[in-house]
């Protein structure tokens, strides 16, 4: 059995009101991963996140899936609390989030980097004291016309996008499993489209 422990954080906003929004792709992917692990989210002792603990495959690394209870711009506090509780270093944290500068349906995986204006990443960087964690960046594209960016990310996917969304969620979940099992470089070759 591997004694590695990974924290996989789905970034999003809590509550039914936000469930289908583009900004909540991280929550959607962690739901898929929880389903694959045959686990259900439960409130963590810290009270600041829901978690599922398990493994992606027998003998594999231990996984903690997390969905912070805070809004996106305050995600860092719950992530830091979970890292402290489970004794996980930032190099074993994977954040799943929406990315405006990548076309819808496209993924990009990376380690480290800036926050590119993403409030969830900014909060994580601030709380962890580093940006050196993995990112699974799910493309949502730029808003059409002159639509405000905040309105765009806090809106539901279009009808056409909703038809393709299950494939993006499945692909992003595969990418998370790939980072844990095969490392970043091999996963980038497979998933960075």
UniProtKB/TrEMBL annotation:
Its UniProt entry gives the catalysed reaction(s) as:
an N-acyl-L-alpha-aminoacyl-tRNA + H2O = an N-acyl-L-amino acid + a tRNA + H(+)
- Name its cellular compartments: Cytoplasm
Q: What is the protein's major site of localization?
A: cytoplasm
Q: Which GO terms describe its molecular function?
A: peptidyl-tRNA hydrolase activity; tRNA binding
Q: Gene3D superfamilies in the record, alphabetically?
A: Peptidyl-tRNA hydrolase (3.40.50.1470)
Query: What EC number(s) would the UniProt record show?
Result: 3.1.1.29
Q: Which residues bind tRNA?
A: 18, 71, 73, 119
Q: Which residues form the active site?
A: 23
Site Stabilizes the basic form of H active site to accept a proton: list residues.
Answer: 98
Write the record's keywords in alphabetical order, separated by commas: Cytoplasm, Hydrolase, RNA-binding, tRNA-binding
An annotated GO cellular component of this protein is:
cytoplasm
At the top of the EC hierarchy, this enzyme's class is hydrolase
- GO BP: any one term: rescue of stalled ribosome
Which PROSITE patterns does this UniProt record tie to the protein? Answer: PEPT_TRNA_HYDROL_2 (PS01196)
Q: Which Pfam families match?
A: Pept_tRNA_hydro (PF01195)
Give residue numbers for the site Discriminates between blocked and unblocked aminoacyl-tRNA: 13
Q: What's the family?
A: Belongs to the PTH family.
Q: What does this protein do?
A: Catalyzes the release of premature peptidyl moieties from peptidyl-tRNA molecules trapped in stalled 50S ribosomal subunits, and thus maintains levels of free tRNAs and 50S ribosomes.
Quaternary context: Monomer.
Return the protein name.
Peptidyl-tRNA hydrolase
Q: Please state the gene responsible for encoding this protein.
A: pth
């Amino acid at each position: 059995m591997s004694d590695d422990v990974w924290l996989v954080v789905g970034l999003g906003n809590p509550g039914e009101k936000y469930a289908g929004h583009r900004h909540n792709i991280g929550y959607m992917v962690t739901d898929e991963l929880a389903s694959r692990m045959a686990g259900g989210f439960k409130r963590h002792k810290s009270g600041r996140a829901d978690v599922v603990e398990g493994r992606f495959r027998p003998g594999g690394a231990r996984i903690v899936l997390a969905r912070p209870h805070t809004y996106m711009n305050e995600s860092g506090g719950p992530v830091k609390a979970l890292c402290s509780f489970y004794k996980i270093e930032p190099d074993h944290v994977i954040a799943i989030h929406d990315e405006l500068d990548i076309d819808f349906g496209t993924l990009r995986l990376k380690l480290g980097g800036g926050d590119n204006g993403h409030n969830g990443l900014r909060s994580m960087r601030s709380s962890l004291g580093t940006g050196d964690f993995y990112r699974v960046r799910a493309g949502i594209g730029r808003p059409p016309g002159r639509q405000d960016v905040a309105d765009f990310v806090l809106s539901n996917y279009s009808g056409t996008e909703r038809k393709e969304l299950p494939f993006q969620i499945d692909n992003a979940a595969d990418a998370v499993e790939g980072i844990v099992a095969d490392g970043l470089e091999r996963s980038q070759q497979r998933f960075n489209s």
